[in-house]
Write a structure and sequence with these properties.
This protein has nine helices and seven strands. By secondary structure, the chain is an alpha/beta fold. The longest helix is centred in the first third of the chain and has 109 residues. The protein starts with a helix and ends in an 11-residue tail after the last helix.
């Protein structure tokens, strides 16, 4: 019995060892199979992802022409819309213009214009020119209208324009008007109550002729200091009106007149300040021709207003070479 048991136990041990070996083999094979399966699955997943990407790329490539087509279609639609909008804008503009024209016609029908009045404003007619003391051409010949390159605020209202060489030009119509008013103002004073002063050499001849014709006291070149203000002087004189040819060069006389509070009439150029002057005669006060013309016209007006029986020298005596002078174009 014991021998049979030993044989059985050895047989069983052998069977168990074989079973273990086979089990190990099967386990190894199973692991190998699992690893292979996993690798295949990975390969399949990667291949599927790659195919999806390829399909996406193909789809994108195929879709791009569609986008181009859509862009073209949009451009066509936009052009159509823009053409429609332009046509609408044109029609709107035309309608607005038509409405504006209608309004303009209504306004024009309501306004009455007088062409003759406009012509008078722009260019004086012959009747107005006849009202001037002398023809406008004679004013131009005497250079009374030419000022300086400087224009003070006081004299700006009398300036018409500047020439190309920047010289100021007086408004001759205003000059004529102011000389008329000056003659009216001057005629309120008797000759013995007027004193005329002109330090500038250019006005010496005309001032002396003015003084001699009307019997008015005159001081040329030098003005005696204190002659109007100091009664202790032997040369002291009393006067009611002072006429000066330039507020700057005749400043001493102007200051004396202000001290004794008598009115001052002054010939003022464009560069003059008029403080202390009561009556301004605008005009060129640096030219002998211009000063001769102003004093000649004042003499005529004074004689006429006061009805003096005095012979007035011809204009050629006031202005040298008058007959040969030509007005500027």
């Amino acid at each position: 019995m014991p021998k049979t048991k030993k044989k059985e136990e050895s047989f069983l041990e052998k069977v168990e060892e074989k079973l273990e070996e086979t089990a190990k083999k099967v386990a190894k094979e199973a692991k190998d199979i699992e690893e292979k399966v996993i690798e295949k699955v990975k390969d399949l997943v990667e291949s599927e992802e790659g195919s999806e990407e390829d399909e996406d790329k193909k789809g994108k490539v195929k879709k791009t022409p569609k986008k181009k087509e859509t862009k073209k279609e949009q451009e066509k639609e936009d052009s159509k819309k823009s053409e429609k909008e332009k046509s609408l804008e044109k029609t709107e503009k035309e309608e607005k213009l038509a409405k504006l024209k209608e309004k303009a016609k209504k306004l024009a029908s309501g306004i009455k214009t007088d062409d003759s009045d406009l012509k008078k404003r722009v260019k004086p007619d012959e009747e107005e020119r006849k009202d001037t003391l002398i023809p406008i051409e004679d004013y131009l010949k005497s250079s009374i209208h030419l000022g300086t390159r400087a224009i003070t605020p006081d004299m700006k209202p009398f300036v018409y324009k500047r020439r190309a060489d920047s010289l100021a030009v007086f408004n001759t119509t205003l000059l004529d008007q102011r000389i008329k008013e000056a003659g009216e103002y001057l005629s309120k004073f008797s000759p013995e109550d007027i004193v005329v002063v002109c330090k500038r050499e250019a006005g010496e001849k005309a001032v002396q002729l003015f003084s001699k014709t009307l019997g008015i006291k005159a001081f040329t070149k030098n003005y005696p200091a204190g002659i109007l203000t100091n009664p202790n002087l032997a040369t002291f004189i009393e006067t009611e009106l002072l006429l000066i040819c330039d507020p700057w060069t005749d400043k001493a006389a102007l200051d004396d007149a202000k001290r004794i509070k008598i009115p001052v009439m002054a010939i003022c150029d464009t560069n003059n300040y008029t403080m202390g002057v009561d009556f301004i005669i605008p005009g060129n006060n640096k030219s002998s021709k211009s000063l001769g013309m102003i004093l000649y016209l004042l003499t005529k007006l004074y004689v006429k207003k006061r009805k003096l029986k005095v012979e007035i020298p011809q204009i050629s005596e006031w202005i040298e070479g008058w007959d040969s002078l030509v007005p500027p174009k």
